[in-house]
Amino acid sequence: MKLQFLLTFFVFHLAAAASMKPQSAPVIKTQDGIGLRYNQTGPKNGQQLLFVPGWRQAAVEWRKQVEYFSQVGFRVTTFDMRGHGDSDKPDFGYRVSRFAADLNDVLTQLDLRDVTIIGHSMGSSLSWAWWDQYPDSHRRVAKFVFVDQSAVIVKNPHWTDAQAAEVSAIFGPGPIYDIAADLANQLEPLVRSMFTPSVSEADFEWVLDQNKKMSDANAAALFVDHSFRDWRDVLPRITVPALVLSGELSVFPHAGIAWIATQIPGAKSYTFTAAEKGSHFVFWENPERFNEVVYDFVKR
Ligand SMILES: *[C@@H]1O[C@H](CO)[C@@H](O)[C@H](O)[C@H]1NC(C)=O
Fold first, then answer.
1. HSE-up of 174 (CA within 13 Å, CB side)?
2. What pTM was estimated for this model as a whole?
3. 19-299 — its CATH code?
4. Residues of the signal sequence (predicted)?
5. In the chain, where are the structural domains located?
6. pLDDT digits (tens, 9 = 90+) for 229-246
7. Probe ligand 1: pick from 81, 86, 120, max atoms within 8 Å of CB?
């Protein structure tokens, strides 16, 4: 009798706990068997947008864009990259080429068409890698928005300072390995440098928590691979309209980001000013202006 009571009690609480769990996002499986969580919001027949996060960032950080664009009629897709957010976290595949393959799996399995891909930071690099590696999928993409990512991060020691500045190559090779080896301590100042000083502590802590969903080891492997890629030869081969966004307060000096638009045929660039809170995370710090600029480009 007593046992039966205990069992009933236990089952009841288990059921209550299960029903309280937030609905988890649906999953696609990559070609190497990794589960990636994604969300689709807004009318099914709406114009397609796909937001790709930056290194170590979670899809949920796009929520101010998801809310706005789905409300004005777009079909908005977000996904957590491998090792990031709520997606599977295998101990392999932390290189941009693999992430571009994952991006292609998202595009093809969700059958996205006429989609505008908005890539933040490393999300832009994934878009360049994907364009380079998957010509058969080019027809799916209508436009690109590249948000604050230089075409080369590492300054070749054989370059002059002017050569490095032209493309905003902001790190020497050594510092990349130094940051990667000490991510437990480097993460917080790194994330801090991506915002303006006016970011609230609550927002900063929340973004830091999203970053910590990825292990330091996986993040370090991806950071090194991402940093040493050079996308300059891909840019002139992009054949869809592109908008390149930079910020006066970004860690990447804006002239070297705007340079990208001079390399892509017909591309436009826009620099968010200091008054517009033009940081690396401008989409979070000034969503009204960011959404307006992206809207105008996508609707044009
Ligand atoms: C999907 O939406 C839920 C609820 O807002 C959120 O918790 C989750 O992080 C989102 N996942 C992705 C991949 O966008």
1. 1
2. 0.93
3. 3.40.50.1820
4. 1-17
5. 19-299
6. 999 999 999 999 999 999
7. 86
